[in-house]
Amino acid sequence: MSLTRRLLRLITIAVLTPVIFLLGCQSQMIYQPRGYEAAQLEMLRKADGVNLTYTTSQGSQTAFYIPPWDKANREPTAIWVCFGGNGSLALDWLYYTDNWDSGNAYLLVDYPGYGKCAGSPNPARIQENIRAAAEALTTHLGAKDIADLRPRLRVMGHSLGAAAALLAADELKVNRIILLAPFTSMTDMANKVLFWPLGYLNRHRYDNRPLVKKLASDGAQITLFHGVDDGLIPPEMSKALAAIDPQHVKVHLVERAEHNDVIYLASGEIRAEMAK
After folding, report:
1. How does 38-72 read in b/e, with b if 16+ C-beta sit within 10 Å?
2. Domains in the chain, start-ordered, CATH in brackets?
């Protein structure tokens, strides 16, 4: 083999190796599924939470309905459909819900492969889970269909969950949305974490910009909270989303907040926003 051919072969291997690695390991890099521990299930019990079990193409799935914690009035003023980050579980929201309005109820949705859910996640499967979880909630509350619940439905999501929340808002026709540390797109994130142009090999095509534009143009009010010191998803991404439609999309930058503590540090502001 000539020197030129050997060099070309080495260059080809050098180029293709990271490509093959990224194509094969994308899911493991994006998603960090895990199951529940006894302490989290005990929190669910104390919150009088209900397991909502349903089936999708990924098998048996479980979301959770949390009624208002004001036991004197279990009719919710609002039902918040909540989605966590890629390393979170649905029941992690229970660390915060007691600090928010006692009249709120919550539909906490896990992704396929997370918590009590079978399967593996991708954008289409998460959207399928959203649709099925909403149908299960409708049945549990004795509503005729999701349209009966729509006036009280709201969505909220953190990080990857912000993308899921936008999918839910579009699917369920919800016009009140809170996003915590959202990214612009998964491709932008991949280019940031890796290097251009490897991000374009991303097969999990979450893109929050067109959904923000569509929902805002339909009149949805979208509020963003982002930590000033977020080293994972830069606050500039929230600013870029807010710039799409400044009339309907507002961003609050949270001082001293990083990626994972923005919910805790902005809890009071989030509560005030939820009450609007």
Report:
1. eebeebbeebebeebebebebeebbbbbbbbbeee
2. 31-274 (3.40.50.1820)
Whole-angstrom distance, CA of residue 16 vs CA of residue 162: 33
pLDDT the model gives residue 191: 78
Residues 99 and 264: their CA atoms lie apart, in Å, by 10
Cβ-contact 119, 59 below 8 angstroms = yes
pTM, to two decimals: 0.88
Single out the residue of 117, 94, 118, 218 nearest to residue 166, CA to CA: 218
Mean pLDDT to the nearest integer, 54-71? 95
Task: Give 43-62 pLDDT, tens digit per residue.
Answer: 999 999 999 999 999 999 99
Identify any residues that bridge with 154 across adjacent strands, giving them in sequence order: 80
The reported pLDDT for the residue numbered 274 is 98
Please name the residue that has the structure tokens 């660390």: 95
DSSP string covering 34-85, please? ----HHHHHHHHHTT-EEEEEEETTEEEEEEEE--S-TT--S-SEEEEEE--
**Residues with Cβ < 8 Å from 42, sequence gap 6 or more?**
none
DSSP assignment of 183-237 equals -SBHHHHHHHHS-TTGGGG--S--BHHHHHHHHHHTT-EEEEEEETT-SSS-HHH
DSSP for 76-138, written as a single string: -SEEEEEE--TT--GGGGHHHHTTS-TTEEEEE-PPTTSTT--S---HHHHHHHHHHHHHHHH
Encoding tokens for residue 95? 């660390």
Burial grade of 191 (CB within 10 A; 0-12, 13-18, 19 or more): middle
**Strand order of the sheet with strand 50-56?**
50-56, 59-66, 104-108, 78-83, 153-158, 176-180, 221-227, 249-254
In one-letter notation, the amino acid at residue 97 is: T
